[in-house]
Recover the amino acids of this structure.
């Protein structure tokens, strides 16, 4: 067993211990941007899955926002049939997702090995999948890539929904009430995505669930052609055939799941009332407790903080700095103030103008970059809305903001923070 020092931390291979906590055991899978390993916690010996993501590939491919969104989504979902994210760690070149380990592997391999499952076995998996999907939708999350490869099995034989890399949140819905990004796996994609006229994220997930249920019972996919044009034509027309062994109840449910018209397609709530779905033992939302963590973007673009965001400022789920300019230092200061977010940004611009510092506002209005006349980064300013009355101001100093930049930080930005900081009234004791 080899300890990964700070200089060799990015040497990711079996036998290495990451951050003194996780010993890598074996490679589980390889993707375009990441490798997934089975690992164990050094102290507890608990098994975990570690996804090592290459920062350079993410940044060069323009996918930083996708990864950041994936982390944000996973930390708000808490359900027995969704892979749990324990923490996120990072080095100069890699980001590590430490997640729940599913010992049974992908549901795809079970179907491939057995050919097809019995209706009772497929029903049990499908009930768990729908329970997880309902939880996602209730939190404003749409998976958009549900497939056998992204459905894992734990040591107890239960489904764990994974890979939220293509997921969307309510904040991405356009004014027409629909999502518009074309994404997904060809054999699982819904016809309305192919039509490119906008789609309902919840109905897209329902379609994919229908493809999964069909495959579980048939041993093959309902739409599977080598010619992509032919494949998409059949999907858009809803052309598929039921195997002769499908029961009438299963056929009825699948015909509603794979309805090419998203307006008449069955909803998750209607699935929960279906006769075939409710045959056998079904305990919905078992073990959920009282979890409810919401995330929204305001119309002005200033992010609203929730309980998990506050915790993330000081735990392993902190995403700050994961994808930012390497010229940003570790020096971060935060204060709570009782100013309007837009007014905070105006005050930052006022002090910057006095010193001829260039302010580059984010397009959504939630923050800005402060640069010197030479183009060097002095600081990043981000404003989060905490409550209707309070906001959090976060300042991150630039590594190359020396000289005038350092003076501006000390003489202008820090005093501005002190001026804006909320000072709650303390009652005078008698």
């Amino acid at each position: 067993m080899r300890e990964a020092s700070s200089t060799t931390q990015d040497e990711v291979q079996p036998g290495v211990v990451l951050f003194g906590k996780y010993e890598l055991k074996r490679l589980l899978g390889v993707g375009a941007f990441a490798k997934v390993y089975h690992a164990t916690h050094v102290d507890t010996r608990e098994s975990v899955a570690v996804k090592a993501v290459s920062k350079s590939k993410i940044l060069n491919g323009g996918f930083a926002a996708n990864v950041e969104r994936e982390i944000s989504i996973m930390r708000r979902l808490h359900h027995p049939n969704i892979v749990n994210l324990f923490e996120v760690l990072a080095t100069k070149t890699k980001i590590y997702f430490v997640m729940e380990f599913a010992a049974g592997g992908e549901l795809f391999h079970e179907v491939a090995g057995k050919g097809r499952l019995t209706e009772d076995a497929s029903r049990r998996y499908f009930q768990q999948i729908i329970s997880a999907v309902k939880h996602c939708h209730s939190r404003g999350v749409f998976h958009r890539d549900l497939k056998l490869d992204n459905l894992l099995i734990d040591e107890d034989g239960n489904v764990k929904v994974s890979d939220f890399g293509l997921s969307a949140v309510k904040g991405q819905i356009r004014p027409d009430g629909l999502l518009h990004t074309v994404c997904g796996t060809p054999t699982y994609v819904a016809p309305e995505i192919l039509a490119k006229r906008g789609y309902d994220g919840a109905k897209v997930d329902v379609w994919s669930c229908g493809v999964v249920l069909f495959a579980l019972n048939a041993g093959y996919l309902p739409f599977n052609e080598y010619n992509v044009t032919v494949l998409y034509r059949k999907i858009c027309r809803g052309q598929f055939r039921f195997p002769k062994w499908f029961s009438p109840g299963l056929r009825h449910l699948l015909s509603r799941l794979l309805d090419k018209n998203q307006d008449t397609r069955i909803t998750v709530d209607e699935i929960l009332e279906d006769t075939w779905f409710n045959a056998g033992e079904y305990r919905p939302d078992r073990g959920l407790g009282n979890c409810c963590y919401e995330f929204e973007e305001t119309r002005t673009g200033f992010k609203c903080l929730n309980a998990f965001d506050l915790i993330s400022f000081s735990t392993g789920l902190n995403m700050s700095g994961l994808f930012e300019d390497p010229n940003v230092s570790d020096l971060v200061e935060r204060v709570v103030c009782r100013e309007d977010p837009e007014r905070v940004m105006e005050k930052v611009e006022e002090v910057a103008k006095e010193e001829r510092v260039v302010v580059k506002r984010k397009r959504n209005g939630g923050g800005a970059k402060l640069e010197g006349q030479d183009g060097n980064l002095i600081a990043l300013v981000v404003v989060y809305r905490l409550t209707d009355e309070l906001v959090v101001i976060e300042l991150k100093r630039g590594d190359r903001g020396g000289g005038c930049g350092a003076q501006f930080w000390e003489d202008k930005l820090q005093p501005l923070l002190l001026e804006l900081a909320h000072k709650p009234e303390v009652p005078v004791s008698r």
In short: The first strand starts at residue 2 and ends at 3. The domain at 307-420 is CATH 3.30.310.80 (TATA-Binding Protein). The longest helix spans residues 119-138.
